Amino acid sequence: xxxxxxxxxxxxxxxxxxxxxxxxxxxxxxxxxxxxxxxxxxxxxxxxxxxxxxxxxxxxxxxxxxxxxxxxxxxxxxxxxxxxxxxxxxxxxxxxxxxxxxxxxxxxxxxxxxxxxxxxxxxxxxxxxxxxxxxxxxxxxxxxxxxxxxxxxxxxxxxxxxxxxxxxxxxxxxxxxxxxxxxxxxxxxxxxxxxxxxxxxxxxxxxxxxxx
Length: 212
Fold this sequence. Notes:
The structure is a single chain. This protein is an all-alpha fold. It has one domain. It is built from seven helices and no strands.
């Protein structure tokens, strides 16, 4: 089955590379946000358990980890506000599928530019240096712009205006950009997108809890 799927994918990619990548990235975005929402539900269940701990669960490892994760966005004091994890947000998942779908053509052109500007040929000396230049150009030029587009798109798609976009940049843009510069980010695309989803959601929850 896997072999058939791989052959199908390769055939589609050979005929329509950009569109096939758009669909693939949209699916990965949906998987990433589903992972993020699952983690959020798990965090809320752990928060509820902390408010009414069962024997043997008061100081377990996961409770300690969740407590550290929730320092930025404290849970509501009222038990009625945290009785159950939030329902799955399909609109949020669609937003996380729409963004990579829309951005893929631009990314495709950018990677084509890098490939033409810094060609890598097998058996030719200096291939490692060319690859390093590609990574450097991508991280220093495209990554900041792409991240700015991401937070702007997500905030506007959620119904936010100019003020909400400015606050999003003020609160989470620089930390997210610093995380993007970590070497492992480029090898775990789904985990990185899940991180973006959690960061974006955490900021929205913080605003909601602070409002009267």
